[in-house]
């Protein structure tokens, strides 16, 4: 569905000098800096895959999405999506993709949501039967029927995001790009959007490329993850493989029976096993997965302390990704 080879995007930025004298110099001599927003990245995405594309602010995620959607022209490399070169075949290509930018809407601001849907129906030449069927699906899963006749400007962020998602899928595109689709949403709204995306992918095998800072979206929706930083791909593979290869610790969350057990915590905090307090009776025990097995840690815990409940947890994906970024920065400093 998507084939990217050595894709590059460079920008020339004007470096301004400070002060009055600097401003005068800028009038006659200008200094430009080349910024490598995307630096020779390569990956491919198969039909029906849901892939998480993550990175820190300024890593190159949105620039990549804009090239994949045809908004930006690449500086170099090769890019083919659904059989099209996006920036060359833009008018035909856009009929085959859906796009949601979390902080921008594709709906008309001052008219009712349903009027925007009807306009999109005509733009994409959707039949009456298909339009009714898809609107029924959106109403069932996203609950958009409650505000179809409300102007977009009167919707809350969560309501607008549901409508934007419905609008992007109204023409049943085989390819969907999501850039921060759950930004600023509450837990209930996020859950509805995630369930809807799962259902669309299951029913139509829609290919989804998702960029987000909320890694819970990635864990909930994607089996594969691409990590990008400073325009370069740092990791590309199954999420489970990343956890297996790069996770350093596991953790056990436990609830003590009573306060008298707190004094005995030192008995289980040994050999690199650390206990962190969550509240009066709730603690998290972290341990190196290479030195200790989870079964061993739990056995020692229940034999030493009286506990009410125990939950086994993997190292949070946020910590793994943070470590990938830090190791990349250290590598860059070492090369320099």
Features of this protein?
37% helix; globular; 13 strands; disordered C terminus; six-stranded mixed sheet; 11 helices; Alpha-Beta Plaits; 336 residues; 2 domains; four-stranded antiparallel sheet; 28% strand; Rossmann fold; alpha/beta
Number of domains: 2
| Largest sheet entry | 6 strands, mixed
Q: What structural class do the secondary elements suggest?
A: alpha/beta
> Order of strands across the widest beta sheet?
5-6-7-3-8-9
Please report the total strand number as a whole number.
Answer: 13
CATH topology category name of the largest domain: Rossmann fold
Low-confidence segments, given as residue ranges, are 330-336
- Total number of helices: 11
Over the alpha carbons, how many angstroms does the gyration radius reach? 25 Å
The CATH superfamily label of the largest domain reads P-loop containing nucleotide triphosphate hydrolases
CATH secondary-structure class of the largest domain: Alpha Beta
CATH architecture of the largest domain: 3-Layer(aba) Sandwich
Helix content: 25-40%
Sequence of secondary-structure elements: EHEEHEHEHHHEHEHEEHEEEHEH
Portion in beta strands: 25-35%
The residue-averaged pLDDT reads 84
Please specify the SSE layout and strand pairing.
Elements: E1 2-15, H1 19-28, E2 31-45, E3 50-54, H2 61-68, E4 76-81, H3 90-93, E5 97-101, H4 113-123, H5 128-142, H6 157-168, E6 175-179, H7 187-204, E7 207-211, H8 215-221, E8 224-229, E9 232-238, H9 239-246, E10 249-256, E11 274-277, E12 282-288, H10 294-304, E13 307-314, H11 317-335
Parallel strand pairs: 3-7, 3-8, 5-6, 6-7
Antiparallel strand pairs: 1-2, 1-4, 8-9, 10-12, 10-13, 11-12
């Amino acid at each position: 569905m998507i084939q990217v080879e050595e894709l590059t995007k460079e920008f020339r930025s004007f470096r301004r000098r400070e002060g009055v004298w600097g401003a005068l110099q800028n009038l006659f001599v200008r200094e430009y800096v080349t910024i490598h927003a995307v630096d020779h990245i390569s990956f491919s995405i198969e039909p029906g895959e849901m892939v998480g594309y993550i990175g820190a602010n300024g890593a190159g995620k949105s620039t990549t999405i804009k090239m994949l959607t045809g908004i930006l022209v690449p500086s170099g490399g090769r890019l083919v999506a659904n059989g099209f070169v996006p920036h060359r075949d833009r008018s035909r290509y856009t009929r085959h993709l859906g796009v949601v930018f979390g902080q921008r809407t594709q709906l008309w601001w001052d008219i009712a949501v349903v009027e925007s849907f009807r306009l999109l129906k005509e733009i994409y030449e959707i039949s009456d039967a298909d339009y009714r069927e898809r609107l029924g699906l959106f109403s069932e899963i996203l609950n958009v029927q409650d505000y179809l006749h409300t102007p977009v400007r009167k919707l809350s962020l969560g309501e607008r995001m549901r409508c934007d998602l419905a609008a992007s899928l109204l023409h049943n595109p085989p390819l969907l790009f999501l850039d921060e689709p759950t930004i600023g949403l509450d837990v209930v709204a996020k859950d509805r959007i995630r369930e809807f995306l799962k259902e669309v992918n299951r029913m139509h095998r829609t290919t989804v490329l998702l960029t987000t800072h909320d890694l819970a979206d990635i864990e909930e929706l994607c089996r594969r993850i691409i990590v990008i930083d400073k325009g370069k791909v740092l990791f590309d593979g199954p999420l489970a493989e990343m956890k297996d290869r790069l996770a350093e610790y596991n953790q056990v969350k436990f609830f003590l029976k009573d306060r008298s057990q707190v004094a005995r915590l030192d008995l289980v905090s040994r050999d690199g096993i650390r206990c962190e307090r969550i509240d009066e009776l709730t603690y998290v025990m972290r341990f190196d997965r290479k030195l200790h097995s989870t079964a061993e840690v739990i056995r020692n815990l229940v034999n030493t302390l009286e506990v009410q409940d125990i939950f086994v947890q993997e190292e949070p994906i946020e910590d793994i990704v943070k470590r990938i970024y830090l190791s990349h920065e250290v590598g860059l400093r070492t090369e320099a």
